[in-house]
UniProtKB/TrEMBL annotation:
Transmembrane segments: none annotated. The keyword Chaperone does not apply. The lineage of its organism: Bacteria, Bacillati, Bacillota, Erysipelotrichia, Erysipelotrichales. Keywords: DNA recombination. Residues 1-41 form the Tyr recombinase domain. This is Tyr recombinase domain-containing protein.
Length: 68
């Protein structure tokens, strides 16, 4: 719950009184499958959008310079 609300792991460690940050990280930072999928989808769409923009720019440059 704390990690889902973007509380820093170090704060969670202190609140849970874990001596080792690895304990906190292993217990409280498991990403749900839906979160992983949403992140991958976001990254994919960003890459596709950047690629489409790059293709569009090259096409315009080719037309402007009449490249074959």
């Amino acid at each position: 719950m704390l990690v889902e609300n973007q509380v820093e792991p170090k704060v969670v460690q202190d609140l849970m009184r874990h001596a080792d940050i690895n304990t906190t990280l292993s217990l409280y930072t498991h990403l749900e499958d839906e979160e992983k999928k949403a992140t991958l989808d976001s990254v994919f769409h960003t890459i596709v959008a950047q690629n489409d923009l790059g293709v569009e720019r090259v096409s315009k440059m080719a037309k402007n310079h009449k490249l074959s």
